[in-house]
Design goal:
CATH architecture: Orthogonal Bundle
Number of helices: 14
Number of domains: 1
CATH topology: ABC transporter involved in vitamin B12 uptake, BtuC
Distance between the termini: 14 Å
Structural class: mainly alpha
Order of helices and strands: HHHHHHEEEHHHHHHHHEE
Shape: globular
CATH class: Mainly Alpha
Largest sheet: 3 strands, antiparallel
Oligomer: single chain
Number of strands: 5
Length: 360
C-alpha cells in the first residue's frame, strides 16, 4: 500500500500556511517572555496589514501579470470606510470590539472591491505602462478626494460635506473624517490575533483562486494573451476578476491598518505607499505567496531592528534592498537553488509494505 505524497503545489500551500502559524506562535511566546520590545510590539498589526497588501497585490502583479501602482488607493478606501462604519455602529450602541471590526472589515472590503470593479472596467482594457499610469492616477485622485471629505455622525444619523466641518450641521456628535486632518478619534480595536486571522483569510482567498479553474485562466492570460484568446478565454473578464479580488483584500487590510491608530490621514496612502507594497511583492517573488509574506514582514520590521544605529539605519536598509534584488541574479545563487529544486523534485518517497517496512 503506497503512501500518498503531496504534490509540489500542495507542499507550497502547506508551507505558506505553516509560515503564518509558526510566526504567530513564535511571536506570541517571545512577547509573553518579554523578549519583544514595546516599539517592535507596536509593529505587529502593521506587519499583518502589509502582508495582506503584498499578498493581494501579488495576485495582480505576479499572478495576473499586470503592473498596478494604485494599491494604496484601495487600502485608503477600505480604511476610511471602516472608520465611518465603526463610528456609526458605536453611535448605535454596539460595544463588542470584535463585532465592530468584523462588520467594518467586511464593509470596507466591499467598498474597495466595488471601486476596484468600477475602475477596472475601463482600466483592464489597457496593458503595460498605460495600466500603471492609470492606476497611479486613481490612487492620487482618491487621496485628493479624501482630503475634501468631512463626515460626522450624531443622533440624527450620518452627515457629509465637501466644504468644511462646520457645514455638517451637527450640534452634537462626532466628526469621523475631518478633511486633510483625516480620521480622528479612532477606537484602536485591531489586535495581532485579528491581524493573523486576516492574513490567513487573505492567503486562503488568493491561493484558492490561483489553484482554481479561474486562476489557471488568469495565469494563461498572463503567459500568452493571444493564445488565451484563441481558445476562447475572456481576457478582460479574468483580468478584472483578479483586480477586483485584490482591491477587496486591500480594503480589508486598510481597515486593519486604520483601526491600529487613533488618527490616520489621506497623505499616508500616497504613491510612496503603493511603491512600498510593490517592493514587497517584487522582493518576495512574482507569484510567490509565501515570498510576499516573508518580504513584507522582514522589510517592515527591519528599520525598527536597525534603530540602535539610527544614523545609518536607512542606509543599511537601502543596502539590504539592493542585495535582495542582486543576489538572486548571481550565477552561484541560481546554481544552488536549481540544485535544491532538482533534488526535491526527484526525491523518491518511501513506500509502505504490508509488513510495515518501507522500501527506499
Amino acid at each position: 500500500m503506497g503512501i500518498k505524497v503531496l504534490s509540489p503545489q500542495a507542499r507550497s500551500t502547506v508551507f505558506t500556511y505553516a509560515i503564518v502559524v509558526v510566526a504567530f506562535v513564535a511571536v506570541t511566546v517571545l512577547d509573553g517572555m518579554g523578549f519583544i520590545s514595546h516599539s517592535l510590539s507596536g509593529q505587529l498589526v502593521p506587519i499583518c496589514a502589509y502582508v495582506c497588501l503584498a499578498v493581494s497585490l501579488n495576485l495582480v502583479v505576479g499572478v495576473s501579470g499586470e503592473l498596478s501602482l494604485g494599491h494604496a488607493g484601495f487600502m485608503s478606501v477600505g480604511a476610511f470606510t471602516g472608520v465611518v462604519v465603526a463610528g456609526c455602529l458605536t453611535q448605535a450602541g454596539i460595544e463588542s470590539e470584535l463585532l465592530l471590526f468584523v462588520i467594518s472589515a467586511v464593509v470596507g472590503a466591499l467598498a474597495a472591491g466595488i471601486i476596484g470593479f468600477l475602475v477596472g472596467i475601463p482600466v483592464m482594457r489597457l496593458r503595460g505602462d498605460y495600466l500603471a499610469i492609470v492606476t497611479l492616477a486613481f490612487g492620487e485622485i482618491i487621496k485628493n478626494l479624501l482630503n475634501n471629505f468631512y463626515v460626522g455622525v450624531d443622533a440624527a444619523g450620518l452627515h457629509f460635506s465637501m466644504k468644511d466641518s462646520s457645514s455638517l450641521g451637527m450640534t452634537q456628535g462626532t466628526i469621523l473624517i475631518n478633511g486633510p486632518k483625516g480620521a480622528v478619534g479612532i477606537d484602536k480595536i485591531s489586535t495581532f490575533v485579528i491581524g493573523v486571522v486576516l492574513v490567513l483569510i487573505t492567503v486562503a482567498v488568493v491561493l484558492n483562486l490561483m489553484h482554481s479553474r479561474d486562476g489557471r485562466a488568469i495565469m494563461a492570460v498572463r503567459d500568452n494573451r493571444i493564445a488565451a484568446e484563441s481558445v476562447g478565454i475572456n481576457v478582460t473578464k479574468y483580468r478584472l476578476m483578479a483586480f477586483t479580488v485584490a482591491s477587496a483584500l486591500a480594503g480589508a487590510a486598510g481597515v486593519l491598518y486604520a483601526m491600529n491608530y487613533s488618527t490616520i490621514t489621506p497623505s499616508q496612502f500616497d504613491f510612496n505607499q503603493s511603491i512600498l507594497i510593490l517592493v514587497y511583492v517584487v522582493l518576495g517573488g512574482m507569484g510567490n505567496i509565501w515570498g510576499s509574506i516573508i518580504s513584507a514582514a522582514f522589510l517592515t520590521v527591519l528599520p525598527e531592528l536597525l534603530r540602535p544605529i539610527n544614523d545609518y539605519r536607512m542606509l543599511l536598509y537601502a543596502v539590504v534592498l539592493i542585495l535582495v534584488m542582486v543576489v538572486p541574479h548571481l550565477k552561484i545563487y541560481q546554481r544552488v537553488t536549481e540544485a535544491v529544486r532538482s533534488r526535491l523534485a526527484h526525491k523518491k518517497p518511501a513506500v509502505a509494505t504490508e509488513g510495515g517496512e518501507g522500501d527506499e
